[in-house]
Design goal:
By secondary structure, the chain is of the alpha+beta class. Helix content is 47%, strand content 13%. It has helices at 7-23, 34-49, 68-80, 89-102, 105-116, 231-243, 250-266, 273-298, 306-329, 338-346, 356-367; strands spanning 122-124, 141-145, 148-155, 166-172, 183-189, 195-200, 209-220, 224-225. The strands form 2 sheets. Strands 1-4-5-8 form a 4-stranded mixed beta sheet. The chain has a 4-stranded antiparallel beta sheet with strand order 2-3-7-6, with no helix packed on it. Helix 7 (250-266) runs parallel beside helix 9 and helix 8 (273-298) runs antiparallel to helix 9. The chain is globular and about 65 Å long. It binds flavin-adenine dinucleotide (FAD). Flavin-adenine dinucleotide is lined by residues 90, 124-127, 132-133, 157-159, 348, 351-352, 355, 357-358, 361.
């Protein structure tokens, strides 16, 4: 692993740093409120105009063909600058890699530019009331009709679906006996006839999630991603992205760890020093581990089950880091603040992107070779 950046990478870092210093609006209203959602979309448009919203994508779709190393640099600079959260993240990090891999060129042309610009925000619609960890037990159905499919059923916990424009999810298009084979991956507008979106308030009171109900929703053949019946394989490439590198880059935790050090300096409690230092070391360790992963991937390796190690590490780091901050703040920690918001959000980390128990099963079976 070579930690020295090349001339080109240093130039890119400088450009991103300067642009963010001049343009970042800092924290915006919560993207789970309507005003905040729109403010975040405006920000995405501005990033896009500077070709910084999806740096690693090909130019024709709004990117600048940045390398993996440059993408990590971008993320470090982004969080260091305290720039707004990415309202488009489920589209650009979870769906786009699948559209690049499995989409037709017509689908790529139709969906990727508007995703890059923040014009269309996407919601992941995988979970169902009776299908979370055991996703293949999902029951929402797709029935073949002339020119397309009719969707029926219910999805839940769909982040940002309250205000998002399009959704992506799996539906059972074949017999339920063939759990993994009879699934198809669909893209659908959330204002289509027969779709009802019902917001769910999160711990902070904002409707960060929604349930989505489908009643005979027509989806044309052109909005099926990958082959009918092949949805499980298509979906699993997203799962790897989600818990691997893309969803939680180290820049996020390094920036939070730096803020934690600042907090300790203004609230220097010797009894909490070790926990603050542990959190900082954890963030730095994740950063260095990620550079190792990037080096391996750039040399042609793949993420594989290592993504599960990543996911366990960052989700636990995030909770510990925020707990240390709240303990430093003492009774002030109970007043709504960035730290208390961050703490509430960190509690979801061990659950979304595949729960940590499921990740431990994967690590045990695939990396450690333990029996099922
Ligand atoms: C902040 C947040 C955002 C989310 N956003 C989305 C979204 O945008 N789209 C979407 O589709 N979903 C989303 N989800 C839902 C998330 O994917 C599910 O909550 C998750 O997959 C777990 O499913 P479940 O809630 O049904 O729990 P269950 O699967 O019922 O699990 C309950 C408990 O049992 C444990 N468990 C289950 N199976 C096993 C096993 N085999 N071995 C050991 N332990 C097991 C689990 O770890 C968990 O502790 C989000 C969740 C959160 C918290």
């Amino acid at each position: 692993m070579d930690l020295d950046l090349s001339e080109r990478e240093l130039g890119f870092q400088q450009e991103v740093r300067e642009w963010l210093a001049a343009n970042s609006p800092g924290k915006l209203a919560s993207m789970d409120s309507l005003d905040g959602f729109e403010a975040h979309r405006d920000w995405e448009r501005k990033l896009h105009d500077a070709r910084l919203s999806t740096v690693s994508w090909p130019e024709e779709f709004g990117g600048r063909e940045a390398s993996l190393v440059e993408w990590v640099i971008f993320e470090e600079e982004y969080y260091r600058a305290g720039a707004p959260g990415r309202v488009s993240q489920n589209g650009i990090f979870l769906l786009a890699p699948i559209i690049f891999e499995h989409g037709t060129s017509e689908q790529q042309q139709r969906f990727l530019p508007s995703m890059s610009s923040g014009e269309v925000i996407w919601a992941q619609a995988w979970s169902e009331p009776e299908a979370g960890s055991d996703l293949a037990s999902l029951r929402s159905t797709a029935t073949r009709v002339d020119g397309g499919w009719r969707l029926n059923g219910q999805k839940t916990w769909s982040s940002r679906a309250t205000y998002a424009h399009w959704g992506f999810g799996l539906f059972r298009s074949g017999p339920s006996a063939e759990r993994h084979r009879g699934l198809t991956y669909f893209l659908f507008p959330l204002d289509a006839d027969g779709v009802t979106v019902r917001p769910i308030a999160q711990l902070d009171g904002e409707p960060g999630f929604a349930e989505i109900f489908f009643e005979d929703v027509f989806v044309p053949d052109g909005d099926v991603l990958g082959a009918p019946g092949d949805g499980w394989r298509v979906a699993m490439s997203t799962a790897g992205n989600e818990r691997g590198l893309s969803l939680r880059s180290p820049g996020r935790f390094c920036a939070a760890a730096d803020r934690l050090l600042d907090l300790w300096r203004s609230h220097p409690d010797p009894a909490l020093r070790d926990r603050v230092v542990d959190a900082w070391i954890g963030a730095e360790a994740y950063r260095l581990y990620t550079w190792g992963t990037v080096t391996r991937l750039a040399a042609g390796g793949d993420m594989g089950a290592d993504g599960s190690v990543n996911k366990l590490f960052w989700s636990q780091l995030d909770v510990g880091l925020h707990e240390a901050a709240l303990d430093l703040l003492g009774s002030d920690g109970e007043i709504a603040s960035d730290w208390s918001d961050g703490y509430l959000f960190s509690l979801g980390g061990p659950i979304y992107a595949g729960t940590n128990e499921i990740q431990r099963n994967i690590v045990a079976e695939r990396l450690l070779g333990l029996p099922r």
